[in-house]
From TrEMBL:
Any coiled-coil regions, as ranges: none
Sequence ranges assigned to domain DUF4143 in this UniProt record: 231-369
Protein name per Swiss-Prot or TrEMBL: ATPase
Lineage, highest ranks first: Bacteria, Bacillati, Actinomycetota, Coriobacteriia, Coriobacteriales
Record-linked Pfam families: AAA_14, DUF4143
Domain AAA, residue spans: 20-149
Length: 424
């Protein structure tokens, strides 16, 4: 079991505090394994195994649970006579009314509670009210590039310093850092797939299974929600998903999507498209990024972009076409910023836009992302918006190929692999 240190440390930080630890994220990003990691950590600290109680809702062991009352009874039975049990619940959204059980256990028992879920509805406003804010969320993403290298067993080669980007793989082969980055860009960072050299057929089969599970179980078969349009068309859901995947990094208004679908023969309203797009967001397949007026210093209500949770899932949805490499790179940079804890917006200027404005506490970074800036015209296009910003916060251009200087007028130009590995 390869530790994902950032997420495990977050759980450890809140261990034994009167807070429900809720781990969220897209299916198969590693949430269940993270709970296993926490169990092993507790055991290593001397906690007796009988105090570590797991309830995996998708296991046949709990297949007979039909209501939250059944769940409450089973938990109480398992925890009977156990001093300060640690309760681990996996994919709790499968049980309607589960939040009542969790709230009751938190109040009535001396216990420490950990939960996973694959739908953002898990933390709806109703749940927040019921739990009185007594929870902390740990939102997981698929692997970063650095984590991907760990999962692939890559070690830095002991070769000469002029070949410092050579990697020794677990099977004894040698690979360049650039080759590994290209594999990561195409096949993404789902943990199970990253444990071995990528094969297209295996990747396609795994992503199809994941995609079908998310679309059917996490979206189409979910309970009818209060004040929300019920989703009834699998075909429309798939078409909206395909459109968003094809347009990562592009402005995607509901009107634009509805117009595109209508041109293909599906007459749908903006409100219907919005309901389906929101469901895909709630299932953690896509992340909306709002526009930010840099001069006015305010968030804008229109012009949001969306990025997919994993570039390998996009490859699957796009039929593994090696196209739109620049926007895929942009997607990768967004995911790294999100992992690093930045709030990310798209910067709006009167004469253009900046790909990302990344903020965290008092820190702010302006970024342009471009696949290749070797031509003078492309270099000038990427630098122009950054030059128009007058404050003193750092400005970066991130690129994946082509010769380039490292600094132009105080604007740093860095290779994507160095940015993703925190080598800048």
């Amino acid at each position: 079991m390869i530790l994902r240190r950032k997420y495990l440390d977050q759980l450890i930080d809140f261990q034994d505090q009167d807070l429900i630890k809720v781990v969220t994220g897209v299916r198969r990003c590693g949430k269940s394994t993270l709970l296993d990691m926490m169990r092993e950590h507790l055991a290593s600290q001397g906690v007796a195994r009988e105090r570590l109680l797991s309830f995996k809702m998708e296991s046949m062991e709990f297949d007979g649970i039909s209501s939250y009352r059944d769940l409450h009874q089973i938990v109480r039975e398992h925890a009977s006579g156990v001093s300060h049990p640690y309760l681990f619940f996996d994919e709790l959204q499968e049980i309607a009314g589960w939040e009542r059980v969790i709230n009751s256990l938190r109040i009535d028992m001396d216990c420490d509670i950990y939960i996973t879920g694959s739908n953002a509805y898990l933390l709806s406003s109703e749940l927040s009210t019921l739990l009185s804010g007594r929870y902390v969320e740990v939102e997981m993403l698929p692997l970063t590039f650095a984590e991907y290298l760990d999962f692939r067993g890559a070690l830095w080669s002991a070769s000469d310093s002029d070949q410092a980007d050579l990697l020794e793989m677990a099977d004894g082969s040698i690979a360049t850092l650039g080759r590994m980055l290209e594999q990561y860009r195409r096949f993404g960072g789902l943990p199970f797939l990253a444990l071995r050299k990528p094969e297209l057929s295996a990747h396609r089969a795994y992503c199809k299974s994941l995609y079908d599970t998310v679309m059917v179980r996490d979206i189409l078969q979910r309970d009818r929600r209060r004040d929300r349009r019920h989703l009834t068309s699998p075909e429309l859901l798939e078409r909206v998903c395909a459109f968003l995947a094809n347009n990562v990094g592009n402005e995607c208004s509901m009107n634009r999507i509805a117009t595109a679908l209508s041109a293909e023969g599906s007459s749908v309203s903006n409100q219907t498209v919005d309901a389906y797009a929101a469901a895909l967001t709630e299932a953690y397949l896509f992340y909306p990024v709002r526009r930010y007026d840099i001069r006015g210093r305010e968030l804008l209500k229109t012009g949001a972009k969306r990025y997919i949770v994993d570039t390998g899932i996009r490859s699957y949805l796009e039929g593994y076409r090696n196209a739109d490499s620049g926007r895929v790179l942009e997607n990768m940079i967004f995911l790294q910023l999100a992992f690093d804890g930045y709030e990310v917006t798209v910067g709006k200027l009167r004469g253009g836009e900046v790909d990302f404005v990344a903020t965290k506490a008092d820190e702010r970074i302006y970024m342009q992302v471009c696949m290749d800036i070797s031509s003078a015209a492309t270099m000038e296009r990427e630098l122009r918006p950054l030059r128009a910003i007058r404050d003193a916060y750092p400005k970066l251009v991130i690129t994946m190929g082509g010769p380039h200087p490292t600094d132009v007028d105080g604007i740093r130009i860095v290779d994507a692999q160095d940015f993703l590995l925190h080598r800048v």
